[in-house]
Design a protein that fits this description.
It is globular, with a radius of gyration of 16 Å. It has helices at 20-29, 44-63, 73-96, 101-104, 106-109, 111-114, 116-127, 130-151. The protein has 152 residues and is mainly α. The protein has one domain (41-151). The protein contains eight helices and no strands. α3 runs antiparallel to α7 (116-127) and α7 (116-127) packs antiparallel against α8 (130-151).
Amino acid sequence: MKFSNTKLQLRVSNHFLFLIPILLWNILLFSKLPMDHFNGTAPQWVLIIENIFRGGAMLLLLLLPVNTKNKLFRSGLMVFIVGILIYFASWLWLIWFPESAAAQSAWLRFAPAYTPIIWFIGLSMMSNSILLLILSVVFVGFHVLEYVFRYV
């Protein structure tokens, strides 16, 4: 995977547009997730770092213009689509089958925290941005760490 330097500019057709379905999903369904298994609290420093990198990744997406001629765009789009399907499926499983053995396992309970890395990799490929990849890996890492603290 080779990334090049992309000129950052605010345009109507930017990569943030790809986040709209994900953000709508989160807004509409977050309250339906079974949160009773989370009984701990994450330290403030984890939340601060997580939100700095989340904000940085989202801001960067606003500045990365969509370029469908990018060599990695199509493969990145496929990774992005697979990633959001897995992300959505992990939510639906937890919502529809919260008492199932799978939903009781840490790997599925944490899935809404770690599966975003898949669609972030797709976005990084589509936008040809190594900086987005770095920001998103750090964000997802701290997002998972937040879940770890809340789970214990």
